[in-house]
Amino acid sequence: KARVCTAAAFLTSLIADADVATDWVYFFEIISRGDDGSEGIIPTWIQVFQLVSCICGTISWIAISSDGRFMEWCRKTTWWSIRASFYIIKIILYVIPDLMIRCFSCGRFEMGDCWIDFDKAFDELLVEVNTYFTDGFRISSGGLLMVGIITEDLPQIIVTFLVEDAIGALGDKKGISNRAYLNLVLAIFDILHKLAAAWDDRNLYIGTGTGAQTLYGHTKSVHSLVRVGLNKIVSVSTDGRARLWDTVKGRIIKTFELGEQSWHGTVVKAGDDKIVTVSSNLHGQIKTFNVESGECIKTIFSGSNAKCTVGSENGNFFLTSKQGDTNEITRWDTITLEPIQRYPKRADHLIILNDDQQFVSVSNSFGEDDNPTLWDMTTGNQIQHFNTKHKNRHIVAMCNHGTNSFLLAYWHGADTYIEMFTIDQTEPIETMAMEGTHIDSPITSVSGNQFATCHEDCSVALWDLSIGTRLCTYEGHTSWINDIVYLREKRSIVTVSNDHTMKVWPISIHFEVEDSSDQEISYKTDVEDSL
Predict the structure, then answer these.
(1) Taking Cα atoms as reference points, which of 213, 223, 46, 237 lies closest to residue 133?
(2) How far is CA 505 from CA 8, 210, 242, 347, 483, in A?
(3) Rounded distance between C-alpha atoms, residue 256 and residue 251, angstroms
(4) Beta-strand runs (E) in 26-169
């Protein structure tokens, strides 16, 4: 997360540091009293009270100053400790029965069946625990400041008066010491400062590390996802299932059976109440499902596997491009699953623009004829070609960026270039170079000049095209990321991966997303080549 050092930030840090430091100085003064026998000893319970207050204040200070990284370390340590304990228990519960079976040669097969059931239940329990610890939890920065006031500052004021009263009773001393005055002043000032900051930061959330919500439900690689309603997403996987998710509750609402365990492909929206799954294998299997009932309405086989698929914004049709020797783009009706029109062109990437009236196709080839091409959806005519800055390039991704513009990502040498085009200009209006890095498809537009990219190291990055700057990086996936969409209502981006998971990343933690009426359609691609 990019940070700017300001006078206010410096003052805030100075106040917090001074307050924690004086708490500890005062504690060591308390425990050192009475060593010479002159002033008596402060009661032990007061010393413990002061120690607990100092520890709580220090933890709160570390948690805020590290932007959640300290909580992430604690979370990881706790998770790995619990995970290790689980596996020790599992080994013990397996080894003891197995030794009994081997020694007494009785009931091996029945025990084996019981073990399979136990192993399944154990793994399900581990997944539930892992979900909590992987997701972590979110607490607002304002909430954390209030915890600091309750656990550190208020106890400091109380313990200061208790200590000074005990010293006065033991040594006939009147008033309070200068160190007590300093401790009280800093504690009161810190309370006022935290109250003001807590109000300002009440909606600024600190995540425990990744800050992502991880959704578990697929048992194999997750290939594609699509928005189907407010905070609702459908994901499809090679486990032969599509699942409808509530991203707010993190729960599975409905499961759709695709019928094949080795399914590869894409899911697109078909109006308000249907989805269409398009396979890149299985002879081009295409299925339509009712979202509410989960019922498969229709199944066809197009006879050719789809290289890539993209759905229209209104859900009335979708485009596919064929794999193999035939270079052809087909427009399909989402209700009848009948082809509407064919366009003679090879395409590795497709997007739909201008209120579903036009689309752009491009291939990964290096020829002059393989520049992005704008098509008229109805007439099937090529309107114009777009010229990239570099000719010898490898296009890796493309996505909508509003109604009449799009982003194109390609490799040139060791660098990745992002270029923005509009449908009325053949040259890019914005270009950004990511030096020394290669991104992997897909990418998605977020808002204004901001967009998200997926990288070879399984991370997700947010960028600002106008200033050419990486705003922040998210890490959490452990394998190739296959698809990404932006949820405007949740101010989050959602990714799916070969690690069998879907992650919801709250991007509003890092920067303010502009409100925009632009419609985003996430780029869809088959990932069979990457597998």
Answers:
(1) 213
(2) 29, 8, 21, 31, 13
(3) 15
(4) 138-140
